Amino acid sequence: MYLPVKATIATLVVLLLITLSLTRLAPPGDPASEKTTKQQSSMIQKISPQPALTITYKPIHSPDDIEALTPPLIKPVAYTRVSTLAALEVSTKKQKFFDMILPAVLISKQRLLAKRIKLAEINAMPTPDEKAQAWLQKQFKLYKAKDTTQLKSKLADHPTSIILAQAALETGWGTSRFFLEGNNIFGVWSFSAKEPRMRASQTREGKPIYVKRYSSLIEAVDDYFVTIARGGPYRQFRKARSQTRDALELIKYLNYYSEIGDEYVQRLRSIITRNKMLRFDSYQLQTADAI
């Protein structure tokens, strides 16, 4: 899938640039301009469908249920229940952790890509229809975006190595209670009693703390991306990821993700480098076309 997706994105960018240039050349309201724009939009819709992706959902009752990775194309498996890895030897535990988390990360990133492509299609429309407008309003609300330019930035992703390192740090390599009981990979808090959640053992200023429960690891990663997109403390991180894909450069903008600040960044750096996690940045999902 790696080459087709990159080719799709590259082609899409070219077509959008052509659309913008033709729109600038023709005067506003010019029928020829409107016709050209519609033709470009139609072309984009034809070249942007996502490769077929069949996700396998399954629970983990023991580490033996975790499917081994087959790089560089990773089978799309969604685990709905996890099992502790605490009893495993360190190197085995880490590999099982990657096997378990990586598919969910790649599936979630694929979903973001699909949203970015849809946004590009809508931006190419002379006048977005009612369905397109409804989709936009839903995304604006979810990601706290004011317009399509801001939404585009919030729909971006970042290197897989960063996400895996955060997952390892937040879950203690898959051993935390939040992870084992609620599929909560990133320690995301809950502020609403209306959503599935669990109570933490500690309190904050005498008040109970709750964290979210998720139905699968994919849902947890999806929510992680929303958290990064919405949070004010991650504004500099979002800006930086639009300028570089260097994981070790980007992590220094995640100092607000944890109360330990710069120490959190140093721990992420150590996890990434010691476990040679930059290799995961080139891994892609296996699609039906690649099977």
TrEMBL record:
Keyword terms, alphabetized: Signal
GO terms, molecular function: amidase activity
Alphabetical list of SMART domains matching this protein: LYZ2
Domain Mannosyl-glycoprotein endo-beta-N-acetylglucosamidase-like: 141-281
Coiled-coil regions listed in the entry: none
Gene3D superfamilies listed in its UniProt record: 1.10.530.10
Source superkingdom: Bacteria
Name of a matching Pfam family: Glucosaminidase
Leader sequence segment: 1-26
Keyword Signal: yes
Protein name: Glucosaminidase domain-containing protein
The organism's taxonomic lineage, starting at the top: Bacteria, Pseudomonadati, Pseudomonadota, Gammaproteobacteria, Oceanospirillales
